[in-house]
What we know:
Blueprint: H1 2-15, E1 19-20, E2 23-24, H2 25-38, H3 42-55, H4 60-72, H5 76-89, H6 94-107, H7 110-123, H8 128-141, H9 146-151
Antiparallel strand pairs: 1-2
Amino acid sequence: MRKKIVFAALFLLCYGTATVYGQTVAEKAYNSGDAALDQKNYDKAITEFTKVIKLEPSNSGAYHNRCLAYVNKKQYEKAITDCNQAIRFDPDYAYTYYVRGLAYVEKGDYDQAIENFSTVVNASVDSDAEARYNRGNVYANYKKDYKKAIED
Length: 152
């Protein structure tokens, strides 16, 4: 009986909502993923954010950050899938639309890219200037719509 209790405690410590130095396992993995992103260690970031998602399936930040890692690894389909999940759980976080727009540009889906950049522009947030620039770039370089490019 004592072995079962010890095993259950160890299991919760490693995989559950137990805390490690005041942080939950998910928080520790999230912070580790953030550090990996900062260090451009995208494989580790993906691993860490995947841990978070397994523990907290509706954590929009983990999906968003894993999306960033996938974009940097040029895995655009996976990035778009994660952006979709992040938006599903937090539709008001405009920066996710911006990142998804970048992924669509790289895939060659310029209409979707423009739509995502427009969402950011219409939200009037900090990435508004970058979104306008990228939307104008898509209009000019890929859609050959110079009038709309100039407007941005």
